[in-house]
Batch of 3 targets.
Target 1
Amino acid sequence: MRVEGPGMTYDYLSGKVETGTRSPAAESAPNGADHPRVGVEDLKNAPPIGVEALKEAVDIANRTVKISNFHLEFQLHEESGRYQVRVVDTDSQEVIRKIPPDYLLDFSAKVQDMLDKALGILVDKVV
């Protein structure tokens, strides 16, 4: 896999970082003008993605953003079933920020648990 950015290219297979380079495709298509647009309906009609493919995509995204002084880590919050992004300082490994914060994910999990328990008692169905 090859990741290209402004003035830099990273090849995951070889592990090489090239600076000061741009691909001919990037030069001929500024701002992605030649790329097809994907709409919401296209995403709704797309086949579901498997868990392994999703984990591999998250792993690739994690490795891609480690190029700068900080990196992003994507992780699944098990209780809520939602993903959280952590901004981490690459040198000190200190977590700079979590998006969304832990307390929101915990709150979301608790609300979902309460709705699951109330289903049939207070609520007919969850929409």
Target 2
Amino acid sequence: MAIDGDRSMQITAQKFVAKMIILGMFIIGAFIMAPLTAFATPLVSAAWLSEQLDDENIIVIDLRNKIDNGNYETFLEGYIPGAIHSNYLTDGWRVAAMALLGCCLKQKNLKA
């Protein structure tokens, strides 16, 4: 009986170690990605956008969602003039690309 108990204990220990390795990989990934997000910059400057607001070829989409405490009501409290509200989580913006959920749609898939 001791042999079966030892085997059971060994399997439990292996499962624990496997879970710790996976957890460690997530933590390391978070430390790697955090600095990369610090370097994220807007596509255009506020000054450029301000100069382009009357251009009918420019469309500003204000993406908000519950993750950042945003919704249509918060959009109405303050937004870029002429911007269109859209919910990132529910309006089809979250797509999977190469098994990564949360990627944005490609330009060819956008519809006016």
Target 3
Amino acid sequence: MTTGGTDVPGTQPSVLIVDDSSMMRSLLSRLVEGDRDSGGNSIWRLAGTVPDGRVAITQARELCPDICLLDLEMPELGGLDALPAIRAVCDAAVIVVSSIAAPGSAERRACLMAGASAVVAKPSGAVSADLVETRGRAILSAMRAALARPEGA
């Protein structure tokens, strides 16, 4: 297995977005691409976006992203089934972003047991353009935490 961009100093960590909703892929892409450091430089590099778990596995193998933002409810192959396969083909930290994985839910526990680094609940109801404001900070915090290396590692 290999890792993506973080192995090269000065290279931004790469992110693969997996969601069947084109609107969610667009919103998450804007969130990732809009995250800047104090100098105005992009923190993340968007490796790609895909609509289902089956394509995600192939892309994870080819792109070796550092982070994978993964929805659960998708056609073809859902996120919970794709998660262990993604982890098997690359070292990406998988962060589940789903409306059905609320705190305390069985889905959330299943995601964490399957190897997710974090689970962030989407706002309930229809996909809204305010996702970046309502959950964006939580998603970005989970991404940063997933890549944080323990001291001495």
